[in-house]
């Protein structure tokens, strides 16, 4: 079962079922979270101290296991543990890991 924590409004969260993820591009990987954490931004969002409006999935820091990789992925493999970065990246900037 795949579930996602969804922020609805200040103080209101919902654990929702989601469809099984699929690979869309050869460079994609599917990662199953093993352990996750919260950060100060998560708390501020839940408390309603940000301008963000729900609903949206919350949480962005975790350690996960690679479940599946696309044909173009060479450096990562199923079963490998990885850290999901706290920031969003296009993967095109020098220094950002992209396989």
Descriptors for this entry?
elongated, single chain, mainly beta, Quinone Oxidoreductase, Chain A, domain 1, 99 residues, 7% helix, 3-stranded antiparallel beta sheet
Commentary on this structure:
With about 100 residues, the chain is mainly beta. The chain has one domain (about 5-85): Quinone Oxidoreductase, Chain A, domain 1 (Alpha-Beta Complex), CATH 3.90.180. The chain is about 5% helix and about 35% strand. A three-stranded antiparallel β-sheet has the order 2-1-4, with no helix packed on it. It has a three-stranded antiparallel β-sheet with strand order 3-5-6, with no helix packed on it. The longest helix has 7 residues, at about 40-45. The protein starts with a strand and ends in a 15-residue tail after the last strand. The model has no long low-confidence stretch (mean pLDDT about 85). GO terms for molecular function: oxidoreductase activity; zinc ion binding. Keywords: Metal-binding, Oxidoreductase, Zinc. InterPro entries: ADH-like_N, ADH_Zn_CS, GroES-like_sf.
């Amino acid at each position: 079962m795949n579930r996602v924590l969804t922020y609805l409004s200040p103080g209101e969260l919902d654990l929702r079922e989601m469809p099984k993820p699929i690979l869309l591009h050869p460079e994609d990987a599917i990662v199953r979270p093993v352990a996750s954490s919260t950060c100060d931004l998560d708390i501020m969002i839940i408390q309603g101290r940000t301008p963000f409006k729900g609903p949206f999935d919350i949480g962005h820091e975790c350690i996960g296991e690679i479940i599946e990789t696309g044909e173009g992925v060479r450096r990562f493999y199923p079963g490998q543990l990885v850290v999901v970065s706290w920031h969003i990246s296009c993967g095109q900037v020098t220094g950002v890991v992209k396989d």
